[in-house]
């Protein structure tokens, strides 16, 4: 399923996403993944990838080299799979350009590529289509729908109404740190 989070700036969406990723500890309650409290175990959620706020990569490396470096951590995908992911987000022609020369939209697409390239089970995206041209955003929405149909869990925070309408199986509105299911 695709779960969407909506709410004004400062309502708690990004903090919630950071807790799902294990970056922040909740002040009360617990976060479980497959019944395991990863925060209590001082670990990170398994097979989870995220893009929260603004993507950051090494400026002197190309987009491809940045993804290669990240992929070397787990070492479970090939260079061809990285290239396929770059093609999926329309960065294949820009793969050798240094990250420092990327536009805002290109940086965002590279951030999405790093989330998708290792085929995670849980995908967390905060304002994923910020700065991305309309046609690529349409195609990426289709990719996310396809992933959700193939047993992936996707959590998206977005201010873009079209993202919410076209993607969401369930919508939660955040207000002052509280989430209410509205769809």
What is the percentage of strand-forming residues? 15-25%
Residue-averaged pLDDT: 90
The profile of the biggest β sheet is: 6 strands, mixed
Q: In what order do the strands lie side by side in the largest sheet?
A: 2-3-4-1-5-6
Helix fraction by DSSP (H/I, runs of at least 4): 25-40%
Radius of gyration, rounded? 16 Å
Q: Which structural class do the helices and strands define?
A: alpha/beta
- Secondary structure: number of strands: 6
Number of helices: 6
- Kindly, what is the distance between the CA atoms of the first and last residues, rounded to a whole number of angstroms? 13 Å
Question: H/E order of the elements?
Answer: EHEHHHEHEHEE
Which regions are unreliable across 5 or more consecutive residues at pLDDT < 50? none
Overall geometry comes to globular
Can you walk through the features of this model?
The protein is an alpha/beta fold. The chain has six helices and six strands, in the order βαβαααβαβαββ. It has a six-stranded mixed beta sheet, with helices on both faces. Helix 2 crosses helix 3 and helix 3 crosses helix 4. The longest helix is centred in the C-terminal third of the chain and has 16 residues. It is globular and about 45 Å long. The mean pLDDT is 90.
């Amino acid at each position: 399923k695709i779960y969407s989070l909506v709410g004004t700036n400062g309502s708690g969406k990004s903090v919630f996403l950071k807790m799902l990723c294990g970056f922040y500890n909740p002040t009360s309650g617990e976060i479980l993944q497959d019944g395991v409290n990863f925060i209590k175990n001082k670990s990170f959620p398994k097979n989870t990838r995220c893009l929260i706020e603004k993507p950051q990569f090494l400026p002197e490396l190309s987009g491809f080299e940045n993804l290669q470096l990240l992929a070397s951590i787990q070492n479970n995908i090939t260079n061809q799979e990285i290239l396929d992911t770059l093609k999926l987000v329309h960065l294949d022609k820009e793969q050798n350009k240094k990250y420092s020369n990327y536009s805002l939209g290109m940086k965002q697409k590279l951030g999405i590529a790093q989330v998708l390239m290792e085929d995670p089970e849980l995908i967390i995206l905060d304002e994923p289509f910020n700065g991305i041209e309309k046609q690529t955003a349409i195609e990426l929405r289709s990719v996310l729908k396809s992933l959700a149909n193939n047993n992936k869990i996707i959590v998206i925070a977005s201010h873009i109404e079209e993202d919410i309408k076209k993607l969401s199986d369930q919508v939660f509105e955040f207000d002052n740190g509280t989430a209410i299911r509205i769809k």
